[in-house]
Amino acid sequence: MEAFETKFAVFVEYLSKLKTELQVSDLESIKTAMISAKFDQVCVFPKKKKLNGYNMFLKSRMAELQDKEPDSNKRMKQVSEEWGKLTETVKEEWKKKAKEASPPLDQSQVKIKKTRKPQPISGYQVFVRETMESLKEIPPRERMKEIGKRWKALKPEEQQAYKTKAGGEKPKK
Known about the structure:
Domain HMG box: 47-113, 117-173
Protein name: HMG box domain-containing protein
Pfam families: HMG_box_2
InterPro entries: HMG_box_dom, HMG_box_dom_sf, Kinetoplast-DNA-binding
Number of strands: 0
Low-confidence stretches: none
Shape: extended
Region (Disordered): 94-117, 150-173
């Protein structure tokens, strides 16, 4: 529950940054709803763009050139040309500045990705794979219709044979 409390605090802070006016009663009802919905698995917020050397250089140069050149397209072009002319050592300095300015990763905003097991292969999929080769000359849409008709025309014992074949195959990841 402690992890939920920290995530909820981050959530409230995020809402306050959006300048959302919420009453204490609203927050309590949101909290109750989140607890009842078992909102302790994932707490995801829009990612802030990771700063890199070019972005830092771009920000500083665009601000400097704003008075001289009001057209942002021309400024952007000029700044990108300047970046291309910089030496690698100067670019490395900008990259170091960006790394220092980047905020550390906040563990409360890390998304927990649930892994899903691949579905098992069905008998129909095995049948499709085997009959697809013989129907290459037919256009794809009609080919699938024909394969479906052939599958339905199979006797239940024949379909069962394909299903047992499918049981031995491993699903694709």
